[in-house]
Design brief:
- The chain is α+β, with helices and mostly antiparallel strands and 369 residues long.
- Helix content is 24%, strand content 33%.
- The protein contains nine helices and 20 strands.
- A hairpin with a 2-residue loop joins strand 12 and strand 13.
- The relative contact order is 0.11.
Amino acid sequence: MARVILDKVNKVYPNGVHAVKDVSLEVADGELVVLVGPSGCGKSTVLRMIAGLEKSSDGRIMIGDRVVNDVEPKHRDVAMVFQDYALYPHMTVKENLEFGLAMRRVPKDARERAVANAAKVLGLQELLARRPAQLSGGQKQRVAVGRAIVREPKVFLFDEPLSNLDAKLRAEMRTEIARLHQRLGVTTIYVTHDQVEAMTLGHSIVMMLDGTVQQVGSPLDVYDHPSNAFVAGFLGTPPMNFIDGCIQSGAKEFTFDTLSLPLPAGYADAPVEILQRAVTYGIRPEHIKVNPSGTWSGGLKGEVVVVEPLGSREIVIVRVGERELTAEVESTGVLRPLQSVDVVIDAGHGHLFDSEGNNLPVMSPGGKC
C-alpha cells in the first residue's frame, strides 16, 4: 500500500485544451477517495495521469515515496478498473483473471493461489470456466475487479466502473467495492459522476469542475458545508433550491419578490453594511416543510404544483411567489396539486452565496468582506 500525492498537476493537450489545472491532492495510505464531478471536469484525466496512461504537462505525481512522472505504467504498481470491462472474449474467467500475472511471468502455483483468492473474495468460484459472453453485467464487472485484485497492487484506480450497470446492480456492486476495500485496505482512488457513489463509498470526496478542485472533505462535511453554489447544487437528490434575492439594509432578512426569509444561522449578528447586497439563498429540499394551509403561522404561502410519492417520503414541488421550490417530506397522502399550503424553511440549514457563487462568509462586527 502507499499514499498518492499530486502537487500542482496540469494537463494541457496539443490543441490547447487545459483539461487539468493545478490539482493538488494527498490520498493517505489505505484511504478510499472519490473524484466526482460532471462529465468533462477532468477527473478521469487525473486518474489516467496517476496510472501513467496520460503524461502530465506540469507538476509532480508521487506513489509512495517515489516520483512517478517518468515511470512506465507497468512499473507504477497500480491496477486500474475501467468503465468498459475489457475482458478477453475468447478466454475463460480464470484465464482472464490470471492473464496479467502470466504476462509478468509469475509462477503457475502463485497464479493459481492469487486467482483462487480473488474468486473467493468476489464469489466467482462457480464462474471460472465460463467465458465473458456467458456472464451478466455484474459478473463481468466482478471479473474486471478480480483481475486488479490478483496483482496485489499498491493502489487501485477505478474509472466509473459501474456506469454500464442498472440501478440494482450498481447498488450491489457499490456494496461489494466497499466490502472489498474494508477487507484489503488498499489505497483506492475512484472516479464517478454519480453523487450517490461518491457519498456512500468515499472516506473523502474531491469535487471537480472545469479541471479544478472545488472542495475536498468527508462526504457529510462537503454536503453540509459546501464551499460554493456548484458543490451545493451537485450533491443532493433532489438538488438544493436556489433563490435569487437580496438583503435589505436594516432589515437583516433575505427578500425575494415581495416575500422574506430569516437569514441562515450565523448571519443575523453580522453588520448590516457587510450583508447589504444581492445574494442567492440555498436550501435543501429536506429542510423545507409543507403542510396544508393554516397549520403553521409565519410560513410562506404557497401552492402545490406536483407531488411525487416515493414510499415513506414524497417530493413536493410548490410555487411560492414567482418561484418553484422542491421539498422532500414524509408521505402523508394529504397533499394534492393546486392545494394551498404553508411553506416553512429551516433557516438553520440555509446557505448564502455571492454573485460569483461563492459562500458568503459570516463576518464578525467590524469585519470586511
